[in-house]
Structure to design on (229 residues):
């Protein structure tokens, strides 16, 4: 069997030319079937306001009670754990375009209720954009926009450099992003704001404030993942 192994592997490459972004195994798609089935999907009842999973449908939940979000409502497709976390990692560091088109956009399309006038991604600061080469939220927004026939527009810009939210606690995150975003030109109508991960909602809320100030009628937020810790 040993001597055939290279041959079999070459054959497998032909049929399954990619690596699953969840487990690294060979796969026909960005995720293998096992990882696809393990996607931590948010499919049950959620809080109507922040989109967190909830025991039953509720207009506001324990997590968001007393929090002043500028967006009207937020929804997320996956919990930020397990395969969900690997998918976000892949969006940032390896196969962004493919993961956005084949996985993130179809998952988010299911959550985009109603009609919107534009899809707008959460922006990256110039220096971070230079380092990474692309903004993963922009790639998701563009792929989603194509699916729902709505133009994607990078209307939002970072006007004040912020610290990495990962290093900060809940309250500090809100202070860190307050007033950090601005809008190029003006905005009209209903905006679908897109990000990869909703953690405290502070970034999405600060972006929503900027869009509303620039003339947006309503802002709804979609994120691929929702962190629940
Ligand atoms: Zn896999
Ligand atoms: Zn809530």
């Amino acid at each position: 069997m040993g001597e055939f192994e290279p041959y079999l592997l070459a054959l497998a490459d032909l049929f399954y030319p990619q690596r699953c972004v969840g487990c690294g195994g060979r796969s026909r798609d960005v995720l293998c079937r096992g990882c696809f089935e393990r996607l931590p999907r948010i499919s049950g009842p959620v809080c109507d306001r922040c989109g967190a999973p909830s025991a039953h449908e509720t207009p506001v939940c324990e997590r968001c009670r007393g929090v002043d979000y500028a967006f009207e409502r937020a929804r997320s497709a996956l919990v930020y754990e397990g395969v969900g976390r690997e998918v976000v990692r892949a969006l940032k560091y390896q196969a962004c375009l493919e993961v956005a088109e084949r996985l993130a956009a179809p998952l988010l399309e299911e959550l985009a209720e109603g009609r919107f006038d534009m899809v707008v991604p959460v922006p990256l600061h110039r220096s971070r954009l230079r380092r990474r080469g692309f903004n993963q939220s922009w790639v998701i927004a563009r792929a989603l926009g194509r699916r729902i026939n709505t133009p994607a527009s990078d209307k939002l810009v970072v006007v004040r450099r912020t610290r990495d939210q990962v290093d900060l606690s809940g309250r500090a995150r809100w202070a860190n992003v307050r007033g950090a975003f601005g809008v190029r030109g003006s905005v009209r109508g209903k905006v679908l704001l897109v990000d990869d991960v909703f953690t405290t909602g502070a970034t999405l809320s600060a972006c929503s404030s900027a869009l509303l100030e620039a003339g947006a009628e309503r802002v709804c937020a979609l994120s691929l993942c929702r962190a629940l810790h």
